[in-house]
Amino acid sequence: MSRDSWEDLRRMVGEEMQALQAAVDAYDEAAARSLGINRTDLRCLELLTQHTTLTPSRLGVELGLTTGSVTTMLDRLERLDYLTRSPDPTDRRKTLIQITDSARQRTWGLYEPFVIEGDALMKDYTSADLELLAGFLRRNRELYERHLARARSRP
User: Which pTM was predicted?
Assistant: First the structure.
């Protein structure tokens, strides 16, 4: 393969990644609006769907929020019946946050088509193709994670 062809392919992959990020961003914005929440709230609900419970401090770390901002967000989402707060049975000084069933159903309704169509899309690829794609995506995620603290620390 010539250097020009490799550069063209590299550029094409980069452009497709940017287009994918823009499409995901636009969809998440529309999903948040549909739920009557902001993007940080949506990310909070996403985290709560991935874990049985989380503490406010863990949510703060994951979302890059201060303690006060986490409290305000939790108050807002609790008023909307999107989450519940309860004392940790093993340490009553801690609070456990859990997504409500209705919030789980509403968010799943927005994202379930991606799971269904994504599964169908992946059937076109071999196991080796999927391993390659998973590795590429993992390495790109790790790249972003390495630079996240730097971006968060900028004014």
Answer: 0.88
Q: Which two tokens stand for residue 3?
A: 């250097």
Q: What is the CATH code of the structural domain delimited by 3-124?
A: 1.10.10.10
Q: Which helix (H) or strand (E) holds 69?
A: helix 67-79
Each residue's pLDDT, cut to its tens digit, for the chain (155 residues) gives: 677 799 999 999 999 999 999 999 999 999 999 999 999 999 999 999 999 999 999 999 999 899 999 999 999 999 999 999 999 999 989 999 999 999 999 999 999 999 999 999 999 999 999 999 999 999 999 999 889 878 878 88
Q: How far apart are CA 51 and CA 114, in angstroms?
A: 20
Among residues 110, 99, 102, 114, the alpha carbon closest in space to that of 32 is found at 110
Neighbours of 83 (CB within 10 A): 22
Instruction: Measure the CA–CA gap between 51 and 45, rounded to whole angstroms.
Output: 10
Task: Locate the domains of the chain by residue range.
Answer: 3-124
